């Protein structure tokens, strides 16, 4: 009975999704709206400008006093400027959505959209920067050169494997948080969903066997975070385009790259073969490979252990349709899409993570802080009542973002990475107030007509 109901539920959403995409494509609504507004974000002052005399305070000559203070103590930039709440969203456009290397200008609409989400969900001022630089080392030097402006850096839509190198170096060489959302954001959301899925099926993360399809940015970070959460890497079976990773693969031995490290740490059974062999007899399947459907077959899901958990996360189409995974025996299914239950969505993660990190003026975002965010998401959903169709908060549950921010800020203080050692209740109060105030401002601007109604 349950499976039939679920199939109908998914099928209804499938039809709605197809109709919606058709409507958007036919009407060109996205193009119309972007052209109508001339982009999605702007900069507004947050200080009063009562008369032009106020500029003698905000600008010259009064501003010189503030500049001298910062010159004597650079940490005061956090007190006198918006550095404390300003991040850069930086891309080279080399892996934008599922569109490939479309270049920095074509990536700008995505960066603006990200900035919009940062502001609305996290009250974070985010500025998009699209760099015409594909070389990793030069990219790093540019980011370091502009970093004094910002309290944090969000790397976005950068191809692998250079994204791993860029993130690692910038995390080491800058004293502000550096985050690659395609890696850490997706991994954190995936872990949060898995924590609750395992609670429902009554399995322990240290005991389950996990098949991982795809070893790009998202799954590389997911493997690392799963290990930090207690999963046994020897019980992970990781697949790339050439098959299961294992130490006897000549191509991996020769390159000795990031996949080689995964190969020697995982696959304790020394499995060989492809996706089917990796999936067989596992408890959990996490796929972040290429859009489906039919990338993963129903008969492979049927070979998983009882009470299987399946996360096909490719967008816009998951590697296998949720109803097919359910029909094949999966008990819990999560995708990257909002039109199916259990959306494993990094938008639940990055606004709160940065809100928390910026509130305490953190120097880093670590895996421990990601684990804190994942646990906060999982606990929020658990309090609301877990079910097979609800293992992770929904985007509409806006109360979750201050809770994620608080968990991250508290962990930064515990780790000694915070410039401001605030108490838990202080972090929550600041985050909740800033996020709610931002959303009220945007609503009021719309009601007053300063944000116009979009064209039909």
Automatic annotation (TrEMBL):
All residue ranges annotated as the Malic enzyme N-terminal domain in the record? 38-171
Segments forming domain Malic enzyme NAD-binding: 183-413
Its keywords, alphabetically, are:
Oxidoreductase
Q: Which organism is it from?
A: Archaeoglobus fulgidus (strain ATCC 49558 / DSM 4304 / JCM 9628 / NBRC 100126 / VC-16)
Question: What InterPro entries does the record point to?
Answer: Aminoacid_DH-like_N_sf, Malate_Decarboxylase, Malic_N_dom, Malic_N_dom_sf, Malic_NAD-bd, Malic_NAD-bd_bact_type, NAD(P)-bd_dom_sf
Per its UniProt record, what SMART domains does this chain match?
malic (SM01274), Malic_M (SM00919)
- GO terms assigned for molecular function: malic enzyme activity; NAD binding; oxidoreductase activity, acting on the CH-OH group of donors, NAD or NADP as acceptor
Q: What is this protein called?
A: Malate oxidoreductase (Mae)
């Amino acid at each position: 009975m349950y499976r039939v109901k679920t199939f109908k539920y998914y099928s209804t959403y499938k039809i709605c999704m197809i109709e919606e995409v058709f409507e958007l494509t036919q009407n060109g609504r996205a193009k119309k709206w972007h052209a109508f507004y001339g982009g999605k974000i702007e900069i507004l002052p947050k200080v009063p400008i009562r008369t032009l005399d106020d500029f003698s305070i905000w600008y010259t000559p009064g501003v010189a006093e503030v500049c001298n203070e910062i010159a004597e103590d650079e940490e005061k930039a956090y007190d006198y400027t918006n550095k404390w709440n300003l991040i850069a969203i930086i891309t080279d456009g080399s892996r934008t959505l599922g569109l490939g290397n479309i270049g920095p200008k074509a990536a700008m609409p995505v960066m603006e959209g990200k900035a919009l989400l940062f502001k609305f969900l996290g009250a974070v001022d985010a500025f998009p920067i699209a760099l015409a630089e594909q070389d990793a080392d030069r990219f790093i030097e540019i980011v370091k050169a502009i970093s004094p402006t910002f309290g944090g850096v969000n790397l976005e839509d950068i191809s692998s494997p250079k994204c791993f190198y860029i993130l690692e170096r910038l995390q080491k060489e800058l004293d502000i948080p550096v985050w690659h959302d395609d890696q850490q954001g997706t991994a954190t959301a995936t872990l949060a969903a898995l924590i609750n899925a395992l609670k429902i099926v009554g399995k322990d993360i240290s005991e389950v066997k996990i098949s991982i399809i795809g070893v790009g940015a998202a799954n590389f970070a997911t493997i690392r975070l799963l290990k930090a959460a207690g999963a046994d890497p020897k019980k992970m079976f990781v697949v790339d385009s050439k098959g299961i990773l294992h130490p006897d693969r000549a191509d991996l031995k020769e390159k000795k790259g990031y996949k080689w490290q995964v190969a020697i740490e995982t696959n304790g059974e020394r499995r060989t073969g492809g996706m089917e062999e990796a999936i067989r007899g596992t408890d959990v399947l996490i796929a972040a490979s290429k859009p489906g459907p039919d990338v993963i077959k129903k008969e492979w899901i049927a070979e998983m252990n009882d009470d299987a958990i399946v996360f096909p996360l490719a967008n816009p189409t998951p590697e296998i349709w949720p109803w097919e995974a359910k029909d094949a025996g999966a008990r819990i299914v999560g995708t990257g899409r909002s039109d199916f239950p259990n959306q494993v969505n990094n938008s639940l993660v990055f606004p709160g993570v940065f809100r928390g990190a910026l509130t305490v003026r953190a120097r880093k975002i670590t895996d421990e802080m990601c684990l804190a965010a994942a646990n906060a998401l999982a606990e929020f959903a658990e309090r609301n009542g877990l079910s097979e169709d609800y293992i992770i908060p929904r985007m509409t549950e806006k109360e979750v973002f201050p809770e994620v921010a608080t968990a991250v800020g508290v962990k930064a203080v515990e780790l000694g990475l915070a410039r401001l050692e605030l108490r838990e209740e202080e972090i929550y109060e600041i985050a909740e107030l800033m996020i709610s105030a931002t959303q009220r401002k945007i609503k009021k601007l719309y009601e007053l007509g300063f944000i116009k109604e979009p064209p039909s």
